[in-house]
Design goal:
This protein is mainly alpha-helical. The chain contains two helices and two strands. The protein has one domain.
Length: 145
């Protein structure tokens, strides 16, 4: 590509010489050279501006992604707080139910003991009455004091 550029420059009557890292042009007016430099600077500025726009777009995309991740994290924290509250509530309800169940079980055992005592008392009373009836039937009623 540089040989074709050199060929077209030569065809246009322009010669380029390099010495100590500097270029010198012949066949080019200072105004043309200044215009070429302006175009080169404009091209470099356009490239810099394009790169700045690309970097800005990437920064905006990163900011949007960061905001989305923060929103997702906040929603997850809220979900975890709600789940913990539900777990705590369920645990408290279960503990209350266990206490109630134990109290009901103890009350049931007390009622069962009281019923057994009442049954034992009724059986003893019935046995006593049966003995009195048997004694009356035989005519041997003990004298009660």
């Amino acid at each position: 590509a540089s040989s074709s550029s050199s060929a077209s420059a030569a065809a246009a009557g322009v010669s380029i010489a390099a010495s100590d890292g500097r270029f010198s042009f012949s066949g080019v007016s200072p105004a043309e050279l200044a215009e070429a430099r302006k175009l080169e600077h404009a091209s470099a500025a356009a490239a810099v501006a394009a790169e700045e726009r690309r970097v800005l777009r990437r920064a905006e995309a990163a900011a949007a992604l960061t905001a989305e991740l923060e929103q997702t994290a906040a929603a997850e924290r809220e979900r975890q707080v709600k789940a913990h509250a539900q777990y705590s509530d369920a645990t408290m309800r279960l503990a209350a139910f266990a206490r109630l169940y134990k109290a009901e079980q103890a009350a049931g055992e007390r009622r069962a003991m009281e019923a057994q005592e009442a049954l034992d008392s009724a059986v003893a009373r019935e046995r006593q009455l049966q003995q009195r009836f048997d004694a009356l039937s035989r005519g041997t009623v003990p004298v009660e004091a």
